[in-house]
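Q: How would the structure tokens look for this protein?
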Amino acid sequence: MKITEHIAQAKDTLVSFEVLPPLKGKIITSLYEHLDPLMEFKPSWINVTYHRAETMFKRRADNTFEKVEVRKRPGTVGICAAIMNYYKIDAVPHLICGGFSKRETEDALIDLNFLGIDNVLTLRGDAPKNEASFIPEPDGNFYAIDLMKQALRMNNGIYIDDDIRDGGKTNFCVGVAGYPEKHFEAPNLEIDLNYLKEKVDAGAEYIMTQMFFDNNKYFAFVDSCRKMNINVPIIPGLKPLTTKKQLSVLPRIFHVDIPTELSNSVMKCKSDAEVEKVGSEWLVQQSKELKKFGAPVLHYYTLGKSSVIRNIVKEVF
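A: Here is the predicted structure in token form.
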């Protein structure tokens, strides 16, 4: 079922979760053990992130180094199929520009279509850790809107090769990312919103937001979108603080602000267990307020903390 259909049929705020693929070498049961505690909430879908390969240098026996490309978390497509088969719920794969040619993306979309997957979330993705800025693969999509349009062209039976006539039409519900505090590369929020509107006008059917810790940022973001006639569902992405280190890590990596009240409370904690308690209480209140506001879905980034997320969601739903 499409995300838009889930939302249209809902009588109240839905819940969904996001997971990382297991590290290479782990088996699928490690993911099931992570998700099992969350199934009591009957999530409408599970998002599965996609990860590009990273460049690494491995030492040879003669002490020289070999440059190799390693994908530490492979298996997104297979994991989506496994989740749908095991839990009988929808899985939503992320698709990214970075590290993939247009042909590789097309093949991935064909696989997803064959598996009966109805939804994708299209993202540009980040630059590799060793590169200052994002550079697409040769013959790859540069921007998320290009990737989104590729998926939408396949919905119309249009493939890369011109000799494919009357190509089979896919039926993906295509989503895009939204940034209540703006994308870090955008010069200002207004321009960032214009880019978002361009995606929606081109066919994006829902927006999934970056994590945020101040609901007022989300409320203002939704209001600004509606004033620009961006009328698709805007799904808030949520994550609890669980360690003191995240006070510096999350703003640096995800370019989000942490409210003074929350950061002051965390700074007073003497252990990560105390931080987890503070972060969980904050997210419970965030969630309740968002639910009251009428957010269509509360989407939780689990990131290896399923027990923490379970305790939070139990207080909200």
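The first helix runs from residue 3 to 9.

Residues 91 and 210 are 19 Å apart (CA to CA).

Upvote if useful.
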